[in-house]
């Protein structure tokens, strides 16, 4: 199994670990310290050796931060984790705060005193974040202390070793572009920006540039590393040499220098000594990187990571790979849905059993590399926890009479998948059907959207919510995130959300996943992956339009659809989508599963 169900959270760790940290802060003459859920790469995917927030508080979510002062502390999470954090963290030690409604800067501004010293690990906070923290400290007459060593590490007994996952070459028949071609493109961007070099801190950017994949974190083929791209010379990859076989090292050495990560700061300082101008992304690069350059006399140009957009816009090889991966995944998924439909109504199936069975069907494809994230298998009230992770202690039997939510994905060498379905188990109430159908209407609105070039995800986000809003309902997460090509299941900069400012471009892949979560009852989320493509001409239209090609191929549960709430156009979309699922997936199924699929996708 690629997923384990061990209990990760331990609320009882909060008090003793906070005491250990405070003792170390006292030794360092610090009055407070911030512990983000981050590593030096500022990515979403963090190895166990860098899960300091979890060690300190017990919280295992993918985003958050703890503030520890001498006599007070708090943990800050966003709306995805408001339920989870209260289950995993001792609220008496780390009261929960909403990361958006009361960010840590606002919390600190009410508590910092003149003369106090607030410490941060300079590599774990971005340039932008440190800039905000400095303002708060200055306003309070306090000092922000940038640390090279993390005090958590000094008191973390049994801290796991840093990962040493093997690096593999990502072949041209999967990548679609030669490494040399990609390097030349990025060098051109650097020259256009009149910079001498660019710093890459995101492992997925580095994996894309050098056509490599790694195994340093769960479920995402990332090689934890840094890179410097020179505008006029070979780039340099900073990676632990133990991750590289001789053949991989030889192949990479033709195009890039290779150095140990311990040499990274010295190379940054050398750029500074030479008076070079270096591009860094202030939203992604740790403050320690900028400081190493400027302290040595270098100049910084703040701009977006130059890899983000080229990586997000998939080439035709990657696009075809995504289609192939989704069709393969659909066969496994439909087999799971058929099995679930026969098994769940007896009332003995639990959340772990369902997740294991789905993974088994994907393994049977023969080419599964990993799942793309821990499967969210939420029965009844657990489904209302947006990013619920089932463990042996939280595992519930899937009840008859409530919807069941399963959000999962797969990693294949030709593509990354992510799909959510909400399934009926037994008879559904009119309220459940109404909620499901309102979410479905939002999903269809995104799928059928037509929009001119330059349109951002923020402009589309309302389409997914408007029918929920009319009913006085909403969901507290974005409508869609970008997805990589055998890389991160969450990829920027593209997203469909209130904060999605990046214009959508043909070749981008995004999720389409509106939801609704009545707390303590059940959860509903419906997710397909969508490829941005040029749309057909609209009769009488004056501008070329973009639209979406749906990649995911799996039925929606018609037993939860209230057809009276769908317009004629929405009903037509659902019927045509289900016909496409039948036509694409049906020929690849055995007769019994095909008969089930034909019934599950019958026209309404």
Automatic annotation (TrEMBL):
It comes from the Bacteria. This is Xaa-Pro aminopeptidase. Residues 322-534 form the Peptidase M24 domain. CDD domains: APP. Residues 21-145 form the Creatinase N-terminal domain. SUPFAM superfamilies: Creatinase/aminopeptidase, Creatinase/prolidase N-terminal domain. PANTHER family: XAA-PRO AMINOPEPTIDASE 1. Pfam families: Creatinase_N, Creatinase_N_2, Peptidase_M24, Peptidase_M24_C. GO terms for cellular component: cytoplasm. Residues 544-604 form the Peptidase M24 C-terminal domain. Gene3D superfamilies: Creatinase/methionine aminopeptidase superfamily, Creatinase/prolidase N-terminal domain. Keywords: Aminopeptidase, Hydrolase, Metal-binding, Protease. GO terms for molecular function: metal ion binding; metalloaminopeptidase activity. InterPro entries: Creatin/AminoP/Spt16_N, Creatinase/aminopeptidase-like, Creatinase_N, Pept_M24, Pept_M24B, Peptidase_M24_C, X-Pro_aminopeptidase_P. Belongs to the peptidase M24B family. The keyword Hydrolase applies.
